[in-house]
Amino acid sequence: MVITSKDNARIKEVRKLQKKKTRDKERQFLIEGEHLIDVAIENNADIKEVFILENKTFDLNIDSLKVTIVNDVVMKSISTLVTPPGILAIVGESECIENSQRVLIIDSVQDPGNLGTLIRTADAFNFKQIVMSHDTVDAYNEKVLRSAQGSHFHVSLIRTDLNEFLDGFEGVVLTTSLEGSTDFTIDESNNVALILGNEGRGVSTELIERSDKLFKIDMTGHAESLNVAVAGGILMHQFRI
């Protein structure tokens, strides 16, 4: 059966997941496109349901999944994209990884593209746990998901009070500061938590004071500063395992 009305009760429920409030309540989010859904399947993500545009076919292993066929009007109503790719899935949030030797702590980053890039870069350099402040942009925002390119399914994402997290963290805490050192030497056997801050004000003074080591990236050109995602990439590469 093909769902043809965007006023269908199930479709109304799906549309609610476009809002952060509903995503937080249900602990579910939407992903779109063959690539993201393929990555989700490969990583045994908790895929609740897949919606496919009628007469479209995809080379995906979805035989064991609940699949709902919809028409063009319905697909456009549940998609967040101007040109929907014709396939969309509801996914449940994954359980948190309790222990990771490398942790990325994100303090009030606001731009979805920056957060998505940081998640993707953390995945690349084995920062498998990402801890975000409550005022950081939603990690399941559609722009964050597209920017991260599937890395959500490789890392653990936690939104919590950063001071409370640091209270229980056993390892060395690093962050950036204009007064920091350009010598990035650390004991690599230690657990490492790297704090990155807001695009405008940087890392909060309170979190800087809780850090064990402060670093700055030596720049030889004329730019006054680096984008937080670029700086994060340099530092995560430096402290990778």
Overview of this structure, please?
This protein is 30% helix and 24% strand. α5 links the parallel β6 and β7 (129-132). The strands form two sheets. It has a six-stranded parallel sheet with strand order 8-7-6-10-9-11. The chain has a five-stranded mixed sheet with strand order 1-4-3-5-2. The mean pLDDT is 96. The N and C termini lie far apart (50 Å). The chain has two domains: 2-92, 2-Layer Sandwich (60s Ribosomal Protein L30, Chain: A); 102-238, 3-Layer(aba) Sandwich (Alpha/beta knot). α5 runs parallel beside α6 and α5 runs parallel beside α9 (228-238). The chain is of the alpha/beta class and 241 residues long.
CATH class of the largest domain: Alpha Beta
**Total DSSP E strands:** 11
Strand order of the largest sheet: 8-7-6-10-9-11
Nearest-integer average pLDDT: 96
Using the 3D structure, state the CATH architecture of the largest domain.
3-Layer(aba) Sandwich
Q: What is the CA–CA distance across the termini?
A: 50 Å
Number of domains: 2
CATH topology group of the largest domain? Alpha/beta knot
Please give the share of residues in helix.
Answer: 25-40%
